[in-house]
Each structure stands twice: as structure tokens, then as C-alpha cells.
Write a structure and sequence with these properties.
InterPro entries: 6-phosphgluc_deHydtase (IPR004786), Dihydro-acid_dehy_C (IPR042096), DiOHA_6PGluconate_deHydtase_CS (IPR020558), ILV_EDD_C (IPR056740), ILV_EDD_N (IPR000581), IlvD/EDD_N (IPR037237). It is built from 23 helices and 14 strands. By secondary structure, it is α/β, with parallel strands linked by helices. It folds into 2 domains: about 5-180 and about 215-395, no CATH class; about 420-590, IlvD/EDD C-terminal domain-like (Glucose Oxidase, domain 1, 3-Layer(bba) Sandwich), CATH 3.50.30. The strands form 3 sheets. Strands 7-8-12-11-10-9-13-14 form an 8-stranded mixed beta sheet. The protein has a 4-stranded parallel beta sheet with strand order 2-1-3-4, with helices on both faces. A two-stranded antiparallel ribbon has the order 5-6. The longest helix has about 30 residues, at about 5-35.
Length: about 600
């Protein structure tokens, strides 16, 4: 193993010993005392079997596994619309191996692309906790010996895992749906957005461009949070190998889903190959998730999601761990917004099998983890192919395009491009893998806002047409649920294109597709929690330094101590936001995962 990766792993194992031991004790106790079908009463079983008459006899016999399907299907979200027919197909495939399957429950799946910049976006992060709770409700009936988790996008995969890990004695497989085929390129789409921001393109032209980019079922084709989720499931060994980026509606995609059902039936509690989820997701798997994130230039949202998933399994990872890993992990991929290629081009160039093979060979990934598919991670360095109608796996070969994928011996960058910033403003994250090196340090007067829409208005009126550090505060989990601020990308990009030094500093989130503008995000403590980001005033010079790893306002301590903290905005209401007040009130800080569900819990 790479010594830096091993050192971080050892650090996490040592830190997590009490909580991980408690978690393992929990799932062992649950396995031994599980209120499963042999222990359920006759009336309980009759209720569970009544809705599936075609499988009732087999379920009553109890000889095979009963698989619970937890689905995030809806046809408003393109990535999840593909799941419409999955349950009925999966029931057929379960019968092929003497098992049965039932839809255990559904979880909400909202689309950040629809709510971006609007009040509904303030429900987005806490939809993850809602999904986790919904997953727990779905699995609470005790009638399943394993589960298939159908989810792919931003908060859905983390939420499914957070809930499912509380049932970690059960074997489970994540079942992805794949990315939509390529449409209008991400670069062309971004160019139209920037032209629209300065009034050079109209609404019709913008709408035509957006529909050309988001045109079909499947995930969006840029490398944002949804596709980073799928990368992460591969390096953690929770998919069938190579399942991440195969397009929907293809024979190969169907073969992979069928194989997932067959494999789940083969790793149940009654088999000789029992693989419970809670043992698959261990400290090494969590480190693999972080390494994969850094090696591929993935979404900053996973600096929230990975800690939250880890905590659900009794594992503690912090931003210092990410920072240390980033210094040691090479950047192997250039996928938009860190390059011009989309995920389909990434897959064609070798995709995750190539990345995993390179990182295993260089010692940056832990090979010796328990995966759903094999005894270690080696199987995930092979690419799925169809041999006639039979599913097989083959070596991915060399990179098909070294402008997209490079070997670990000759990476795009020797480090993973994420940094932790610390200073008198607080502690924050910054992703620099898509930022030009000369923009890693920005020192400029601040312009302070409490609402992202006010930033856009200030841009339109010309107030920001200068060197500026835009500060957007009261955007943390306790203030308004920590919405993404992706709407700010086009105007800030325009200012940067005009030659200005520009940066964003916020206690909120930026999109997983954030790119060329330096953004210090997830500032902790947040403004509502007494963080110093709330003390920044218009005109204060703020220095964002991704080279030194600092985030400071150049104001002396005595002046800061004399400043009064601003009154927070009113509590959000409307669009259902008032219903999430308990989530905001209980939310943890960003570094712990910004979860209300996990805050203060013994996990």
C-alpha cells in the first residue's frame, strides 16, 4: 500500500475503534435476534404475502431468499425514471435462482437540477436523511433476507446507504441505472449559460441548449454528484463490477441488473458466502471511496456524504483525512467540469475498471475489502461485456484516450486537487482540480450577501464588476438546509473571464459540477452557529489561498472582537420548508456530514 494511504487508514481505524465495535456488536445482535420470517406470526406473514399471489407459495415455503427492493423510482427525475420496470424484471430473475422479491418501499428522489436556485433546493440536503429514514421503514418489516437498493443521484445513494447500514446484517447490492447518452456537450451548454447571464442569449436559446444537454433517461452526463456516487459504489465493491456507467436500455445494462439479483441470492445468510452490508462497508472501503473521489476529480458534496455514510457504520473520517489523501493520490481522470469529456467518453476510454486497475497497481486502493462480487476488489478492474447473451468480464486494456484517462505513473496531477482551508474565517473545503493554477490564490475586497439571488442581482447591476470575494452566509445546514449555489457559477465565471480575481466563500454548498471559479465552501462553523464568516463586512479584504491552505479576512483580532454578529434571516417557510425545521435545528456541522439524523446518536 501507498504509505500515506495506509497511514490515513490506520488513523481512521484507531479513531473509530469504540464506535465501530459498537456498530459490529449491533449487527451481530441483529443477525442473531432478527425478527425474520421464521419468527413472525402467521397473521404477520399472511399480510406480507397477500400482495404477491404469484410468489405466495414459494414465500410460504421459505426455502429461498426474499429480496426487499427499495426503489427511488419517479419519472420526473431522468436518472430514476429508468427504474420503472426494474421490480417486475427483478422478480422474474429472482425466481430463476429460487428466490422471491418484493418492493419493500419507495424513497423520495428529488432533482437538484430542477430545484437549483429556488426554495425547494433548501429541502435537498435533508432529503438524504428522509431517504435514510424511509429505507429503515421499508426494511423494518422483517420479511427480507437481503435487499436491492435502486438509487443513483445526489442524495439518494448516500441516504439509501445510511438507512441500509442500520440493517447491516443483511446482504445488499446497489443497483444503478446508468447515464443518458451524450447530447449537447457540457462545454457548449456552459457557454450558452454564460452568454445568457450577460444578456447575449435569450430564454428560448438557453432552454433549447438545456434540453439538448438533458435529453433522455439516465443520469446527467457531467461528472457531478450523481456520477461520483456511482464511482464510489465501484471502489467500495457494492455494485456488480463495471456497472456504473453502462447506458440505460441496453442489453448489457439488463444483464448487469439480472446478475445483481442472482448474486444477492447467492450471498444470503443461509449461504456459504454470506456478505452482510455492514462488513462490506468497513474502514478500508471508506478510504477507497475517498481515494476514488480524489483520483477522478469528483464532487465536493462527498466531503459531506462520505463522513455521513461512514458514521452510519460506526466509522469516523474527517476533512484532515481527505486533505492528507489528496496530497498522495494522483489525478487520473479529466471529466467535465475538470475536462471537456463527459462520462460516456470516460467509460469508452476505460472507465472505472481502468481507474481501479491503476490505483490497485499503484497501491492507492485497498484490494483486501469484502465486496458483493468477490473476495477482494480485483474483480472491479475488469470490464463487463456480452459474449453472445452471456455476461462476462474482460481486462480494460490501456487507456483509450489519454486526454481523459491517464495511468497512475503519468497522471494529470500528482495530487487529488482538494484542499482544506483554515484561518480566522473558519474551516472550509476547496476543489482546485478544475481551477487554473494562477487562480489558486485570490485576495480581494469582500461583498457580503445573505441570499444567492441578491448576488445575481448585484452582478446584473454591475456592482461586482471588479476583483471581488463574494461571501454568501447563512447558507449552512442549520440556517436554511445548505442548498447548492450552482446558479452563481455562470455570473462568477463571467467576472473571471473579464480578467477579475474572483472567489466565492460560503457556509453553503456549491454544485458537484463546480469548476473553474475558486470556491471555499462548507465553511464551519456556519454563520448561524457563531462562525466568523458572519463577521465579514463589505470591503474587508479576504484571502483565499489554496496553496498555503488558508482562509482569512485581513482584519485584526481586536476589530473582529468588537463586531456585532448579524441577525439571521427569518426561518424558511413555504414550499414545505417549515416541516424541516427539526432537521435544521439538530443538524451536525458539515465536517461530520451535516446530518440531523446522526447528530448525537450512538452510531
Amino acid at each position: 500500500m501507498n504509505p500515506a494511504v495506509q497511514a490515513v487508514t490506520d488513523r481512521i481505524i484507531a479513531r473509530s475503534q469504540p464506535s465501530r465495535r459498537a456498530y459490529l456488536d449491533l449487527i451481530e445482535r441483529e443477525r442473531d435476534t432478527w425478527i425474520g420470517r421464521p419468527r413472525l406470526g402467521c397473521a404477520n406473514l399472511a399480510h406480507a404475502y397477500a400482495g404477491t399471489p404469484e410468489d405466495r407459495a414459494a414465500m410460504r415455503d421459505g426455502a429461498g431468499m426474499n429480496i426487499g427492493i427499495v426503489t427511488s423510482y419517479n419519472d420526473m427525475l431522468s436518472a430514476h425514471a429508468v427504474y420503472y420496470r426494474y421490480p417486475e424484471q427483478m422478480k422474474v430473475w429472482a425466481r430463476e435462482v429460487g428466490a422471491t422479491a418484493q418492493v419493500a418501499g419507495g424513497v423520495p428522489a428529488m432533482c437538484d437540477g430542477v430545484t437549483q436556485g429556488y426554495p425547494g433546493m433548501e429541502l435537498s440536503l435533508f432529503s438524504r436523511d428522509t431517504i435514510a429514514l424511509s429505507t429503515a421503514v421499508a426494511l423494518s418489516h422483517g420479511t427480507f433476507e437481503g435487499a436491492a437498493l435502486l438509487g443513483i443521484c445526489d442524495k439518494i445513494v448516500p441516504g439509501l446507504l445510511m438507512g441500509a447500514l442500520r440493517f447491516g446484517h443483511l446482504p445488499m447490492v446497489m443497483v444503478p441505472g446508468g447515464p443518458m447518452p451524450s447530447g449537447l456537450s457540457n462545454k457548449e451548454k456552459a457557454a450558452v449559460r454564460e452568454r445568457f447571464a450577460v444578456g447575449e442569449a435569450g430564454r428560448e436559446e438557453l432552454l433549447e441548449a438545456e434540453i439538448g444537454a438533458y435529453h433522455s433517461q439516465g443520469t446527467c452526463t457531467f461528472y457531478g454528484t450523481a456520477n461520483t456516487n456511482q464511482m464510489m459504489m465501484e471502489v467500495m465493491g457494492l455494485h456488480m463490477p463495471g456497472a456504473a456507467f453502462v447506458n440505460p436500455g441496453t442489453k448489457l445494462r439488463q444483464a448487469l441488473t439480472r446478475a445483481a439479483v442472482h448474486r444477492l441470492a447467492a450471498i444470503g445468510t443461509a449461504s456459504d458466502n454470506y456478505r452482510p452490508l455492514g462488513l462490506c462497508v468497513d474502514e478500508k472501503a471508506i478510504v477507497n471511496a475517498a481515494v476514488g473521489l480524489l483520483a477522478t476529480g469528483g464532487s465536493t458534496n462527498h466531503l459531506l456524504h462520505v463522513p455521513a455514510i461512514a458514521r452510519a457504520a460506526g466509522i469516523v473520517i474527517d476533512w484532515e483525512d481527505f486533505d492528507r489523501l489528496s496530497a498522495a493520490v494522483p489525478l487520473l481522470a479529466r471529466v467535465y467540469p475538470n475536462g471537456s469529456a463527459d462520462v460516456n467518453a470516460f467509460e469508452a476510454a476505460g472507465g472505472m475498471p481502468y481507474v481501479i486497475g491503476e490505483l490497485l497497481a499503484s497501491g492507492h486502493l485497498h484490494r483486501d475489502i469484502t465486496t458483493v462480487a468477490g473476495d477482494d476488489l480485483s474483480a472491479y478492474a475488469s470490464k463487463p461485456v456480452l459474449d453472445g447473451d452471456a455476461l462476462a468480464w474482460a481486462p480494460p486494456g490501456a487507456s483509450g484516450d489519454e486526454t481523459i484517462l491517464r495511468p497512475a505513473a503519468a497522471p494529470f496531477s500528482p495530487d487529488g486537487g482538494m484542499r482544506i482551508l483554515q484561518g480566522n474565517v473558519g474551516r472550509a473545503c476547496i476543489k482546485v482540480s478544475a481551477v487554473e493554477r494562477e487562480r489558486w490564490i485570490v485576495e480581494a475586497p469582500a461583498r457580503v450577501f445573505d441570499d444567492q439571488l441578491d448576488v445575481i442581482e448585484a452582478f446584473k447591476s454591475g456592482e461586482l464588476d471588479r476583483d471581488v470575494v463574494v461571501v454568501v452566509r447563512f447558507q449552512g445546514p442549520r440556517a436554511n438546509g445548505m442548498p447548492e449555489l450552482h446558479k452563481l457559477t455562470p455570473p462568477l465565471g463571467v467576472l473571471q473571464n473579464r480578467g477579475h480575481k474572483v472567489a466565492l466563500v460560503t457556509d453553503g454548498r456549491m454544485s458537484g459540477a463546480s469548476g473553474k471559479v475558486p470556491c471555499a465552501i462548507h465553511v464551519s462553523p456556519e454563520a448561524l452557529g457563531g462562525g466568523n464568516i458572519g463577521l465579514i463586512r463589505d470591503g474587508d479584504v479576504v484571502r483565499v489561498d489554496a496553496v498555503a491552505g488558508t482562509l482569512d479576512m485581513l482584519v485584526d483580532a481586536e476589530t473582529l472582537a468588537a463586531r456585532e454578529r448579524p441577525a439571521p434571516p427569518p426561518a424558511p417557510s413555504g414550499m414545505g420548508r417549515e416541516l424541516f425545521g427539526m432537521f435544521r435545528g439538530q443538524a451536525d456541522e458539515a465536517e461530520k456530514g451535516a446530518s440531523a439524523m446522526l447528530a448525537g446518536a450512538m452510531l
